[in-house]
């Protein structure tokens, strides 16, 4: 017992010493931090004032040249190598000569005007760049850059007299659905070897939405949403707007629904009975998992599915129907047609997602309990078994239609139980296929 007690006492003392040492080390670090804080703030201020303007104008080639010059100066001074000193002198001379190309000040007024910030795939996105010389003297020729997405367009601005305006028109390609960051417009000064590069921003940036391509569901497919509702529901209610029949009064019935003329004729109290009415609420389950589309044209088939969702959504908005769109990435805002199209434009597909179409449909059924029609939008990579499993999550009495998108395939219609399955190869065939679905 004595040995155990001694060991316990020793370990307790060691723990206390360790805790005391850690506490002292923490206090020392705190003192050092407080002591070095002014120095660190001065270093940051020096970097922002002195170093940042230098490093911001150095291109990758400029950094290499500067590092080479410093290394050669050190080697030449340390070992007396004349070749190294000569190389260091030439590199330094080239750096100094490049400075003259980026010096100078421009007084421009730059305006960036996008004719439309929302276009559809294939439409023309036109903009204008207007540059005015605000200085009292003529300006030297300048180079303007306009970043567009991951690229940049260059505009050569000629020599402008005082208050003279130069305007350039440009067109942005819209081959694919995406959101492009356009701008800010910046003027660029650089030397012929692109060692130094000085940029000045003149405008803000804008977002250009290239919406998915859509097809009108008017004409032969007009009112397809109403057709999908089918026959009125047979559920009876004691209070609604759709009159059904008269029945005998029962205890607890609302007296406001008593039909007095029929009661007087039959000698018994008769009350009105109504059919429950449901307001159309469309729900779209759009799969963004590329594994559920064809292996050869997965991205192309996914774009077709997005266009189908946009077309059905536009028709629902035009008919003032309630609309919900859900994907693996979450719900798409559908408060207005513009919000819906912007949300569908931002959607991106990915491979090897943990969630598949079944998960999206289950989440849709839980999120939109009042849906009257649910669309499954997927590709040919989704098997019939997966479609049946997804349909099992659809509440009873809700119409379900699966649209499998595969570019170039022949349009077909089939059924899996009560689930209608449509195969779509072209967006223009959507209206006809929807009419067949309700035929």
Walk me through the structure.
This protein has 439 residues and is an alpha/beta fold. Helices cover 38% and strands 27% of the residues. The protein has helices at residues 2-55, 60-79, 82-102, 224-228, 260-266, 298-318, 337-346, 357-367, 384-391, 430-437; strands spanning 108-114, 118-120, 125-133, 142-148, 151-157, 165-172, 178-182, 186-190, 197-201, 206-211, 236-237, 242-248, 270-275, 281-286, 322-327, 330-332, 373-379, 399-405, 412-416, 419-424. The protein has a seven-stranded mixed beta sheet, sandwiched between helices. Strands 5-4-8-9 form a four-stranded antiparallel beta sheet. A hairpin with a 6-residue loop joins strand 8 (186-190) and strand 9 (197-201). Helix 2 runs antiparallel to helix 3 (82-102) and helix 6 (298-318) runs antiparallel to helix 7 (337-346).
Relevant terms:
membrane; 7-stranded mixed sheet; 4-stranded antiparallel sheet; elongated; 27% strand; DUF58; 20 strands; 439 residues; Immunoglobulin-like; alpha/beta
Structural class: alpha/beta
Using only C-alpha atoms, the radius of gyration works out to 36 Å
Number of strands: 20
CATH architecture of the largest domain: 3-Layer(aba) Sandwich
Low-pLDDT runs of 5+ residues are 219-223, 230-244
The strand order across the widest sheet is 16-15-14-17-18-20-19
Distance between the termini: 93 Å
Q: What is the string of helix and strand elements?
A: HHHEEEEEEEEEEHEEHEEHEEHHEHEEEH
What's the level 1 CATH class of the largest domain? Alpha Beta
Q: What is the overall silhouette? A: elongated
Named CATH topology of the largest domain:
Rossmann fold
What's the name of the CATH homologous superfamily of the largest domain?
von Willebrand factor, type A domain
Q: Please describe the biggest sheet, giving its number of strands, its sense, and whether it closes into a barrel.
A: 7 strands, mixed
When the domains are counted, the total is 4
